[in-house]
Amino acid sequence: MTEQKNDEEKQPKKPSHKWINIGILFSTIGIIIFFSAFGFGYFELSKVNITLARMVSDLQQQSINNQKNINALQKALSDLQQKSQQSQLLSGQQEQFMSEWRSAQKGDLNKWRVAEAQYLVKLADDHLQFSHNVKLAIILLQEADKILQNTEENEIRKSIAADLANLQAIPQVDITSLFMRLNAMNNQIDQLSLPFNPLKTKDNQLSQTSVTAELPWWKAGLAYSWNALSKIVIVRNNSNALPLVIPEEKIFLYQNLHAQMEVAMWGLLHRNDVVYKTSLERAAAWIKQYFEQENQQTKTMLLAIVELQKVNLQPPSLNLTNTLQLFDVAKSG
After folding, report:
1. What is the count of structural domains for the chain?
2. Most buried of the four, 65, 143, 212, 217, by CB within 10 Å?
């Protein structure tokens, strides 16, 4: 018995199940804590990375905006420099103007009046050459003559008087009134009547020949061909009759007439006499060729076109060169 006890004491004691379970529990808790800490750290690191990426993107956008602002400032600075140069140029012109004004006040105003009248005459000449505005040119010349009344420039005034007489002798063309008339005629084109005159073909002995079984086969074929051809091709013997327009062509005929009237209006506004009269002539020719001549609207339209063709849109070839040369002579003297 004593030996058995000693043997039992010598053998190592096995750990109990309770301590094993506690160890497993602590190990599981440790693993959970580790993974939780790792996940939390990864999440926080991701947030930091996202924040840094946003900050980098914001910095890049801010850099782009700053560059745009710098470019805008550079452009504004360049504009300011140009405006400053223009201001300096204008200031120099104003100083020169005031200097001339003071010199004129110290002596007499004759040179000043001559310069002002010369400017008005030059402006009138420009209007004659470029816009062909005779009415405005007359007004400017009259103002120049008034300025020169208190001067001794009689030669210049005589030249201006001759220019005024020549301009006033030019017949005035009321462009607005003519344009309104052309526009009204253009609106009335669709009311013009086309002729309704069915064509009658001559009686043809072969076309009236009935194809019977008595005719040979080749004569029957010729008769059929002739009948079909006579329905397509019609020979008109009366050369004075108006050509008929098929319904599909009516729309194009009216559209072409509208186009000619619009071209005439363009020529009127641009003082192009050739285009104006050529378009009216072509429109009149088409109306005479295709529309019913006995219709009152057709007659009225043709009479109106004839009256409009009498208008001369050729711009005046006058210029004020002689008067301007007299101004140069007066200033140099």
Report:
1. 4
2. 143
Q: For 179-227, what is each residue's pLDDT tens digit?
A: 999 999 999 998 888 876 544 444 444 444 444 455 565 556 556 555 5
Instruction: Name the residue among 154, 168, 91, 166 with its Cα closest to residue 117.
Output: 154
CB atoms within 10 A of CB 127: 17
In a domain, 206, yes or no: yes
- CA dist list (Å): 232 to 205, 220, 228, 239, 290: 17, 19, 7, 19, 21
CA-to-CA dists, residue 308 to 187, 268, 281, angstroms: 16, 10, 10
Chain Cα centroid distance, residue 85? 34
**307 shares a domain with 176:** yes
Supply the range of the domain harboring residue 310: 172-198+238-315
- For the stretch 80-107, pLDDT in tens is 788 778 777 777 777 776 666 666 555 4
SS3 content of the chain, % helix, strand, coil (to 5): 75, 0, 25
